Amino acid sequence: MVKSSVLGYPRIGADREWKKALEAFWSGKLKEEEFHARLQDIRLGHLRKQQAQGIDLIPVNDFSYYDQVLDTAAMFGIIPKRFAYEGGAVPLSVYYGIARGTKEATASEMTKWFNTNYHYIVPELDGAEPALTENKPLTAYREAKEKLGIEGKPVIIGPLTFLKLSKGYKASETDAWLERLLPLYTRILKELEQEGVQWVQIDEPVLVTKVSAADVQRLTTVYETFAAEAPNLNIMLQTYFESAEYYSEMTRLPVKGIGLDFVHGCSGNIKSIREIGFPADKVLGAGVIDGRGIWKAPLREKLELLEELAGLVTADRLIIQSSCSLLHVPVTAKNERKLLPELKNALSFADEKLNELVVLTKAVSLGQNAIADELETCECALLALSQSGERNRGGIQQAVANISAQQPVRHLPFAERHPLQQNKWQLPLFPTTTIGSFPQSAEVRKARQQWRKGEWSGETYAQFIREQIDVWVKLQEEIGLDVLVHGEFERTDMVEFFGEKLAGFAFTQFGWVQSYGSRCVKPPVIFGDVAFEEAMTVEETKYAQSKTSRPVKGMLTGPITIMNWSFVREDISREQIAYQLAYALRQEVEALEQAGIGMIQVDEPAVREGLPLKEKDQAEYLAWAVKAFRMTTCTVQDTTQIHTHMCYCEFHDMIDSIEAMDADVISIETSRSHGELIHSFELNTYKLGIGLGVYDIHSPRVPRVEEMTAMIDRALRVLDPKLFWINPDCGLKTRGYEETIDSLRNMVEATQAARAKHYAEAH
């Protein structure tokens, strides 16, 4: 009989209860015992919701105290030596120290989870002696069964994926590390089997990427071992985010089920099944409901796909499930009361997706007539959205078609622009700046709420923002920064702020998703044609510039980042959405320049995360992403300096594309990766201005001057000193007042030492 399942459920809660509990614990407002109890209540509530909805196979061990990859490392006792861990159960102080850093030790690196906007903590294997500290999947299974009577499906990150996501070991050590980890995984699975667990989900999303033939052989060894040691345990080998790269090899593995993504990897996966077939002794986990998007599923289309799959596999060997964990979407749309009806009726968040899974499972079992009402409701909702005037702005569509047909280029190449800019700005060697935002205190957040609620007039709020700008312009001058920013106190979020001022966007009230740790974001919804309506940043930037003789950067979020950090429409291509955004932002860049702002930063931290997982699709994406950036910036004067910023990604495979963006200065995060990105520049020449972030702003610790000096020294071994800038690795919005000032003072001190050293060596 066909069953329904999900691969994971959002941990944050409909009202971000999880986030609030974490931050209360970190601030000392919640004792550890009470903290555990509160998280258990949240966790059980999520399980009850799935149970009540009628999901057949409910995931357990998908809940986390911070991050699922960090959980796996902690479960295996893989703790960096600097945290003085001595074995046994990992205390929360160490667990959160790895994630957030402590006064004594830096946090572990954080990077993107495949091509999503979720960040995971990178395990550090160097020097680790793995040992099973706790069978977390077993604990989660027992809790669900004892508390709620749920026969849960434990979720585990598979060994190959775990290794590929880790650092601190050489490729030649892969087999040795598998030999260390395999007995620990085997023990987990044997104990689950002894407990009577029916299904366990082992996530191997790395199998949608290009791994080596040796890795495929390792995979065979791993799963043959699992089958031999836990023969009665049903393993669902789960992939997601794209089509399986090694489908034929996967079908020969001794597992009971194979989970495939039939949303983002549909064409490749369905092609493999049609051409190769699906093994008669296995169950297919058909991921037909989009775990990353927010739109209602076109149920009739999904049923046609499922009917084809049932014909290829047989319905009794079919599990209908989400394409990936629902971690990437908000919890529920039921509380959204301020959206246009045609938009709200077309939304499907995690809870609505649970219902879609149950409805499709019913239809496959009983036929389409069993869900006739649901089919009609769905089709009417999607049709109303497609006919909305928001999606049919003919003037915008024509204008974007016209400018995207042209090649966007600056008037002069960088080599000729740079001396003109130097002559204009007269900046010192190693100019110092920040990425844009300064701490948003409780006072700033309260003022914004008062304004939004109508308790403050627009002018009262504007005056408050000007006062904040006054304070921080003066502080930046006192600290000794060379290029200033206005601080972005008027902005809630670097994407939301712009979306609120552009046509074609909508904003939910409760559509939060987890980005990293307790950091939750509320992505805008791009549901219509994007259009510029009025200047968005000119007033505050122009005011800040009037308060100082030093240059103040205008601060914009770039088109690719706005797109990648939003939930976007699906009726046109992402390329076309990017060009619409670029056209709108170009008008803002021009408005800033006309207002006398001669340095403009167009941030693109999310370019890398949008890179397709399949190599064959990457060049095309990078080409139009670069084009969108250049469309935004190409019309400025030669003396106007364009900056950009990128963070928390692997860039070694796209340095050529970064250079092709033709920004005069780019700042890139390097602090959490301990300068590893610098190695990319040891192998590749970079001829434009560049600032490598010299300290980690996501940690509350104040970095020492010596740490930043070491980072600067290494960078200057491979980068042109005349083009080198010094800055933090990201914006300072989440940091405290004192730590921000102390950190920036140390950064300036390190810069002054670097200047003195460089001049001494030069003479």
Walk me through this protein's architecture.
It is a single chain. The protein has 763 residues and is of the alpha/beta class. It has two domains: 3-386, TIM Barrel (Alpha-Beta Barrel); 439-762, TIM Barrel, CATH 3.20.20. Helix 7 (174-195) packs parallel to helix 8 (213-229), helix 17 (442-452) packs antiparallel against helix 18 and helix 22 runs parallel beside helix 23. The longest helix has 26 residues, at 737-762. The chain is globular and about 75 Å long.
Note the topology.
Elements: E1 3-5, H1 17-26, H2 32-53, E2 59-60, H3 68-75, H4 92-100, E3 110-112, E4 119-121, H5 136-148, E5 153-157, H6 159-164, H7 174-195, E6 199-203, H8 213-229, E7 234-238, H9 247-251, E8 257-261, H10 266-276, E9 283-289, H11 299-313, E10 318-322, H12 341-344, H13 350-366, H14 372-386, H15 394-404, H16 414-425, H17 442-452, H18 458-479, H19 496-499, E11 502-506, E12 513-516, E13 519-521, E14 525-532, H20 538-546, E15 553-557, H21 559-564, E16 567-568, H22 574-594, E17 599-603, H23 615-633, E18 641-646, H24 655-660, E19 665-668, H25 676-683, E20 689-692, H26 705-716, E21 724-725, H27 737-762
Parallel strand pairs: 1-10, 2-5, 5-6, 6-7, 7-8, 8-9, 9-10, 14-16, 15-17, 17-18, 18-19, 19-20, 20-21
Antiparallel strand pairs: 3-4, 11-14, 12-13
Helix pairs in contact: 1-2, 7-8, 11-13, 15-22, 17-18, 22-23, 26-27
